[in-house]
Design a protein that fits this description.
By secondary structure, the chain is mainly α. The chain contains ten helices and no strands. The longest helix is centred in the first third of the chain and has 44 residues. The termini are far apart.
Amino acid sequence: MNRSIAILAAPAVAVLAISLSGCVGSAVRTGIDMNDRSSNLSLAEAGDAKAQYQVGKSWCCALGGWDIPVADQVYDTETASEFLCRAALQNFGPAQLELARLYSGRVTHSLMPILVRAVAPPPTDMAAALMWADLASTNKVDGAEDLRRSLAGEASPEARAEAARRSTEWQSAPCTWRDTIGGQTASDRTAMKTPAS
């Protein structure tokens, strides 16, 4: 009888262990992000692109783009995008890649668990994502060409055309979360989404 209970309890113990490790991992990550933010902020404010990138990543992202009030003091997508844009507009490739990930919903440095992302995916702008991925690829950032190819294959023809148009004037194209996602109308978001599979 005890062996049966142990067998039935094993999955619950595994789930609990995984959950707790996620909490510990999140706490460690939060500490690292807070340290990166404070140690790079003065350089970022002075215009250093690498420091702006580090500060932007440290703020990124509340639920992969869906900001939540509890996390606003720790993670904020708009603040992240502002610092990433400062670096990207200086042609700093890693920041351009991070913006491509942000606007394609592929944020790798995020609080959003995979399950939540699957249930409530963040808003995307495939034209912006493709434009930034193309720039990062041109700057030969590791992983940028793979992301660019993937996005080009998934994007609608309208999004690819819009990305090409924006690429010609990328330094004045919408960059921040507010200007890119917040500035879209519902019909813009529909046009820029990936085609249905």
